[in-house]
Design a protein that fits this description.
mainly alpha, 0% strand, elongated
Length: 160
């Protein structure tokens, strides 16, 4: 992914590329840039002060930082089509809540996808190959998993 999704503007439109084998220093810079990007996209979840940082941090680390857990927004399901015995105001509120839940879910996924794409662009594929599914690539691997300590070891030793 080049700079950012059409609706996402990150402070680091492109991450500093890691040329050759990742080092602790290059991985720390990569993580700092990704953290800044995740924090820059507002969210009311997890205390509301850290944007979407929970996409990249472990639950425990995020909780220690924010003091409040970040609950990943679930897809709200099918749109409400009929609310029995509801007033017009209740129906409007049900639709509003559905739309907000859907927007939260969609934004979370867009941010997660954009951050992962940035990471994949910044790091030579050789150093991420241990995490790649031979048939599907990286769709089930999160940026958080790529940044986790064991995965960082995989970045340094691609065929371990």
């Amino acid at each position: 992914m080049a700079a950012s999704d059409s609706q996402l503007t990150f402070p680091h439109a492109e991450l500093s590329p890691i040329v050759g084998e990742p080092t602790n220093t290059s991985l720390q810079l990569l993580q700092r840039q990704l953290y800044a990007n995740a924090r820059s996209i507002d969210s009311t979840r997890g205390g509301g002060n850290n944007g979407h940082l929970s996409i990249l941090m472990s639950d425990a680390a995020y909780l220690a930082r924010a003091g409040v857990a970040f609950v990943i927004p679930a897809h709200p399901g099918a749109a409400p089509v009929h609310v029995p015995a509801a007033t017009a105001a209740q129906i409007a509120e049900t639709i509003r809540l559905f739309n907000q839940d859907l927007a939260d879910h969609t934004l979370y996924n867009k941010v997660a996808t954009a951050l992962k794409a940035q990471l994949l662009q910044a790091v030579d594929a050789t150093y991420l190959s241990a995490l790649e599914d031979p048939e599907f690539g990286y769709p089930d691997v999160t940026a958080r998993a790529m940044l986790a300590r064991p995965s960082s070891d995989a970045l340094r030793h691609p065929h371990a």
